[in-house]
Design goal:
The structure is a single chain. It is globular and about 70 Å long. The protein has a 4-stranded parallel β-sheet with strand order 2-1-3-4, with helices on both faces. It folds into 2 domains: 19-268, Rossmann fold (3-Layer(aba) Sandwich), CATH 3.40.50.10310; 272-326, no CATH class. 31% of the residues are buried. The protein has helices at residues 2-19, 33-40, 62-77, 105-121, 137-146, 165-174, 187-196, 227-231, 245-268, 271-285, 293-309, 314-326, and strands spanning 43-48, 81-82, 126-131, 155-158. Helix 3 crosses helix 7 (187-196), helix 6 (165-174) packs antiparallel against helix 9 (245-268) and helix 11 (293-309) runs antiparallel to helix 12. By secondary structure, it is mainly alpha-helical. Bound molecules: zinc ion. Zinc ion is lined by residues 54, 62-63, 133, 184, 189. The site of zinc ion (ZN) has 6 residues, from helix 3.
Length: 327
């Protein structure tokens, strides 16, 4: 009897597992797309990592591991679909190190835009970029700003983890090295890896190289592309050796909580797209004034491109064309 009960229990557990809707895009079956769309409120996370050296001790894909884990954990609290591994960003400064995957800038840009377009074509009108790589924020912020360059039927949101005073105090209590020098593959980052994937961290190797700031270039108030290499030629900044899984837990839990909260707010958000639409209707008429003939031609050309790409239907094209010509 006991054995039968156990077998039944196992069976029901398996059914329960099978019935859970996966968050990952690549783990969903196509038939579940409408269900995933409803449950996510049309929201898709695009987790962006990078492939680059992480000191002498942490894995090349550290940033990817981070975003993958944040997305997996946050979507258990607040469902959204998660786009598979994406590691095409800005990493020119580490091209002298093994394992770095740095695509040409125009490809990085076009791939990101095309990826967002494709995610939206699949029904997701809210795309949430989460980023694990310190060399990406300038690129990503400019990318998000550039979404206003052309009318789109979707919005891109760029998530940054929130940090309140309780969190800051908790980190300060737990950490060991000077936060000012703690950056790439340093105490913070190594700690989160020790918490998430300890088997991939070679902590004993963390002292083989120096993560000290060498300050080899100091021109006041000037930014150069070589600044990072000038400071950290080992592509290592901080002291990975003092990392602990305990600190990693504090940082990870805060990020996951913060992401789940952001997802909830984004899923409920109706303002961003409404404001985008309002903005573009004003762009088209320059605040009520008719378009100049060249703008009309531009608008028509853009519509034709969208139609040719299959982004809009013939019917939508004709309606939009009529509207442009009527202005
Ligand atoms: Zn990293």
């Amino acid at each position: 009897m006991k054995r039968i009960c156990f077998a039944l229990l196992l069976l029901s557990t398996n059914i329960a597992v099978a019935q859970t809707l996966p968050a990952r895009w690549d783990e969903l079956v196509a038939a579940d797309w409408p269900k995933a769309m409803t449950q996510s409120a049309g929201t898709c996370i695009l987790p962006i990592g990078i492939l680059e050296k992480h000191g002498p001790h942490a894995p090349i894909g550290s940033d990817l591991i981070h975003v993958r884990e944040w997305a997996a954990r946050a979507t258990k609290k607040e469902y959204a679909v998660v786009f598979p591994d994406y590691f095409y960003g800005q990493i020119n400064e580490a091209r002298h190190q093994p394992g770095t995957f740095a695509l040409p800038p125009t490809i990085v840009w076009d791939l990101l835009q095309a990826t967002c377009d494709e995610i939206a074509r699949n029904g997701f009108k809210k795309i949430v970029i989460i980023n694990g790589h310190g060399g990406n924020p300038n690129l990503l912020q400019y990318f998000v700003q550039s979404q206003l360059n052309m009318k789109r039927d979707y919005a891109v949101y760029f998530f940054t983890p929130g940090r309140d005073s309780a969190y800051n105090a908790s980190v300060q209590r737990t950490r060991k090295s000077d936060p000012a020098g703690d950056s790439h593959a340093g105490e913070n980052e190594t700690s989160t890896l020790l918490y998430l994937r300890p088997e991939l961290v070679k902590l004993d190797s963390a002292k083989i190289e120096s993560g000290e700031n060498l300050r080899r270039l100091a021109i006041p108030n000037v930014y150069t592309g070589i600044w990072w290499y000038a400071s950290y030629p080992n592509h290592y900044a901080g002291e990975g050796a003092v990392a602990t899984a305990q600190l990693g837990k504090v940082i990870t839990e805060n990020t996951v909580e913060s992401l789940a909260k952001a997802l909830k707010a984004i899923k409920a958000d109706t303002k961003t797209i409404a404001l985008q639409n309002e903005f573009f209707s004003r762009v088209a008429t320059v605040d009520g004034a008719p378009l100049s003939s060249s703008s009309v031609a531009d608008e028509l050309a853009k519509l034709k491109t969208l139609l040719d790409k299959g982004a809009i239907t013939k019917e939508e094209y004709n309606t939009a064309k009529k509207k442009v010509l009527a202005n």
